[in-house]
Amino acid sequence: MSIQTLSTFLNVFYIGALVIGAASSAGLVYCNNRLQRDANLKIAQANESAALAEQRAEELTNENLEIKKKMAWRTLEGEDRKSFIDAIQTPSDEHHVIVIRLQDGESWNYSGQILSAFTTAVGWIRTEGSKHLYGSGEIPQGVICRVSANPDAVIERTIHALEKANVNPIVKREPNLPANTIEITVGLKPVG
Asked: Cα 66 to chain center, whole Å?
């Protein structure tokens, strides 16, 4: 083999190596760009999934708070209790409150707070009764206040004070009750 043939062969080999090197570099750049594009797409999808998960977590947190509110026991405490007691004070023991309590923990506790407020207030004759939940017909829901068809001013003021204290009474006017009497049945906490 002559030097010229060897030189030609080496030149061809060198050019071939350059072509292969260029092709390899182009292939590597292409693969790198494709990998980067795929990675960016996966990152974008992961960010979108994370945003959706964060949004769902916030929704679940809000739903959980709503459930806790619905499950929380009713109370007559703090400023509501103080305002209620101040509003129902009456100068003489001429007014009657009958508090009927259900044999249910939440209702019993809430009716106890209402009865305690009447005990603290001046001018009320208190009577307490209870009602069993089972085998007694319809189970009352909410706070039901039975009053005379024509209650006196103190009873009307008491109804208004219950409303203002967020007790949300259901008022039923009945002709057979005396004008100076209010019967409060504390039923189960309404759902919803």
From this structure: 1
Query: Could you tell me if residue 97 is left (phi over 0), alpha (psi between -120 and 50 degrees) or otherwise beta?
Result: beta
Contact 162, 115 (CB under 8 A): no
CA distance 84 to 184: 15
Please, what is the average pLDDT of the chain?
Answer: 86
List all residues 6 or more positions away from 106 whose beta carbon is below 8 Å from its beta carbon. Answer: 73, 74, 188, 189
Give the CA distances from residue 108 to residues 11, 67, 73, 77, 114, in Å, rounded to whole numbers and listed in that order.
Answer: 102, 21, 10, 15, 10
CA distance 97 to 140: 18
- Give the distance from CA 11 to its chain's centroid: 81
pTM over the 0.85 mark: no
